[in-house]
Amino acid sequence: xxxxxxxxxxxxxxxxxxxxxxxxxxxxxxxxxxxxxxxxxxxxxxxxxxxxxxxxxxxxxxxxxxxxxxxxxxxxxxxxxxxxxxxxxxxxxxxxxxxxxxxxxxxxxxxxxxxxxxxxxxxxxxxxxxxxxxxxxxxxxxxxxxxxxxxxxxxxxxxxxxxxxxxxxxxxxxxxxxxxxxxxxxxxxxxxxxxx
Length: 196
Known about the structure:
Blueprint: E1 8-12, H1 27-39, E2 44-45, E3 51-57, E4 64-70, H2 78-87, E5 95-101, E6 109-113, H3 121-130, E7 136-141, H4 151-155, H5 161-184, H6 186-193
């Protein structure tokens, strides 16, 4: 159950630095940036965590949002997330991780609450630091690498030319999904988006 007294911590997972900006692994940052733009918030360095943070409300008088981009690199994302959850007193059920997902084909965005990390180092770090897997995941499908390409190399490469034509639309869709989870809840959002 959500508690309107506490903000939502929306964590875009990615790697800091210009060289990673267009990587598949950085879709979480892309979604966080779009959400900040929608609510008119700007990212700034947080004094208590190695992360960029933007605070806003979702709509007039709506739920409070804390948008987060950890700056520790993917494998260590959990430390800043746990520090910010504690700082803002956010229950883990109101933490949303937005991340790339190899096990979902490109073009699909899926939502789940809890469960395994599917080998995703950012999620693994978050679960370890938060001490629970009970948080929301907005999973941005990037599909499996072609041929024998190493999955680690694949996620650290940019989207292909054909994919790039759709990325902006899909980032927009993922941002819609995040907003829907906050306003309507996980199950109604799954019903709304998993059929399409």
